[in-house]
Amino acid sequence: MKRVLSLTFCVLLIVASASLIVGRVLISRAAKDKTYTEVGLIPHRRVGLVLGCPKFSGGSPSLFFKNRIDAAAELFQHRKVEYLIVSGDNHVQGYDEPTDMKNALLDKGVPADRIYLDYAGFRTLDSVARAKEILGQDRITVISQRFHNQRAIFLASHHGIDAIGFDAPEVEMRYSFKTLCREQLAKVKAVLDIYLLRRQPHFLGQRVAIGSS
Fold this sequence. Notes:
alpha/beta, six-stranded parallel sheet
């Protein structure tokens, strides 16, 4: 019995390790040469997609949130994007990532009429797919940290979207260790969602024309 359990554990460990490697390789390959760190080098895209995250972490302001907002505002101020979609979670009362992002962008000087809120960005897959299906965009600049941008670009490529990424500054390891660990699993899940589960957004809805009065 112990031998069977040991063998089963070894097999599961090998499968898990292989899944992590395959997920990382596929996503890295999909995003190769498609992410930028310098605003002067990134091509212009009409619309940027800011991926959501909590405004606070452990009671303190989230550096992931701050850095994404700073990066999005920088792109807009340098006219590398004309409009911004802020996409995040809003399924619990009192928790509203899109509104938090919009308010932070307003504080940075981005006009309200250049910001579009997507309240159903529960997952990165939802945010990316809804950018096309609801907001009509098939060419976007994704704005998040590099690890997140790579996964978003992978998902976008399988939803008929030509996506590039603008990498917000990374967060020090002592503040980001848990997030980076979760990201390894998120990469595996993204690959499974595309190739095996064929997942679609939780919600779609009526299309919205960006830039229309």
